[in-house]
């Protein structure tokens, strides 16, 4: 029973740690896209993050062989372009807090896709936890009132959809190739996913507005912590947790991002956004408690 609890605890902790990296990164990315174009910054964080992981694979004498390159390329498209690039594009004109939270409509798409493709069933309590979080998202989206940043909000929601597609793809890949090393999958999805980004940059031309110390700090933080390490933690959690668990726990990231935006960028949340953030946090905590209870039975 104790071993079962540990098997569930470590994946949960890995996703929670990932949310802290990604959560604070919303503030970093918002300021970075004022210095360099979203496609350029996406390539920097994805490509060089992949190089670091491939170097670690070689250093530890692990296999560099790609298993099913088409499948890994698809995962890279979903998570490196559909998610990362669209998030950065949305941040160019959208608010940091609202963009971060709307991107995390991912659990809606991930759970719907998991129900259809993976035949995953959820308990009533898990559905309740997700519903609480989703009500919080709706409050933040505020569909009743017309917003000037409507386009950026729709791009953020689209990023959430493609991220959900990436979650399902990773789970399907792990089911098909359970022996694959997560470091290998993470490195190759990042590298393959960055190649189409490079093609787009070459076609449209490079956009770099200003190179200063913050640009280098933001790049290193994204390359090391938010890509190389965070995607490894994320894929580990996706492999060992149910889609409903991993996706809902990840909702901690926009809460952290919104708080960071309030502190560093003075983006004060409205009343409805504050209530929404609180509901999301409650949904996350409920999900973690339910997951822990299942492992101890």
How would you spell out the order of helices and strands?
HHHHHHHHHHHH
General form: globular
Helix content: over 70%
Total number of domains = 1
Beta fraction of the residues? under 5%
Unreliable segments of 5+ consecutive residues: none
Ends: how far apart? 8 Å
- Computed over alpha carbons, the radius of gyration is 18 Å
Count the beta strands.
0
Assembly state (oligomeric): single chain
The main β sheet shows up as:
none
Coarse structural class: mainly alpha
**Average pLDDT metric:** 86
Number of helices: 12
Short note summarizing the structure:
The chain is mostly helical and 297 residues long. It is 81% helix and 0% strand. The chain has one domain (2-296).
Which features characterize this protein?
mainly alpha, single chain, 81% helix, 297 residues
What does this structure look like?
The chain is an all-alpha fold and 297 residues long. It has one domain (2-296). The chain has helices spanning 2-32, 38-59, 69-93, 96-103, 106-118, 124-141, 150-176, 182-204, 213-240, 243-249, 252-264, 271-296. It starts with a helix and ends with a helix. The model has no long low-confidence stretch (mean pLDDT 86).
What topology emerges from the helices and strands here?
Elements: H1 2-32, H2 38-59, H3 69-93, H4 96-103, H5 106-118, H6 124-141, H7 150-176, H8 182-204, H9 213-240, H10 243-249, H11 252-264, H12 271-296
């Amino acid at each position: 029973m104790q071993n079962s609890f540990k098997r569930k605890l470590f994946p949960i902790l890995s996703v929670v740690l990932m949310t802290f990296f990604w959560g604070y990164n919303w503030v970093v990315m918002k300021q970075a896209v004022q210095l360099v174009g979203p496609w350029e910054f996406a390539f920097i964080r994805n490509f060089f993050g992949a190089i670091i992981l491939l170097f670690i694979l070689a250093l530890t004498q692990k296999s560099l062989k790609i298993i099913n390159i088409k499948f890994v390329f698809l995962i890279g498209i979903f998570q490196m372009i559909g998610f990362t690039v669209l998030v950065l594009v949305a941040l160019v004109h959208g608010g940091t807090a609202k963009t971060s939270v709307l991107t995390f409509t991912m659990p809606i798409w991930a759970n719907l896709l998991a129900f259809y493709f993976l035949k995953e069933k959820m308990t009533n309590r898990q559905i309740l936890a997700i519903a609480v979080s989703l009500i919080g998202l709706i409050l933040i989206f505020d569909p009743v009132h017309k917003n000037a940043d409507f386009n950026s909000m729709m791009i953020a929601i689209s990023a959430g959809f493609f991220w959900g597609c990436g979650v399902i793809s990773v789970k399907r890949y792990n089911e098909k190739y359970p022996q694959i090393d997560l470091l290998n999958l993470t490195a190759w999805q990042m590298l393959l996913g960055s190649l189409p980004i490079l093609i787009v940059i070459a076609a449209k031309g490079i956009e770099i507005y200003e190179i200063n110390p913050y640009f280098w700090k933001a790049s290193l933080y994204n390359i090391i912590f938010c890509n190389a390490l965070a995607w490894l933690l994320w894929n580990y959690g996706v492999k060992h947790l149910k889609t409903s668990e991993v996706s809902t726990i990840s909702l901690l990231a926009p809460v952290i991002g919104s708080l960071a935006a309030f502190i560093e960028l003075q983006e004060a949340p409205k009343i409805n956004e504050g209530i929404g953030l609180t509901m999301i946090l409650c949904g996350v905590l409920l999900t973690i408690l339910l997951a822990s209870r299942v492992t101890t039975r």
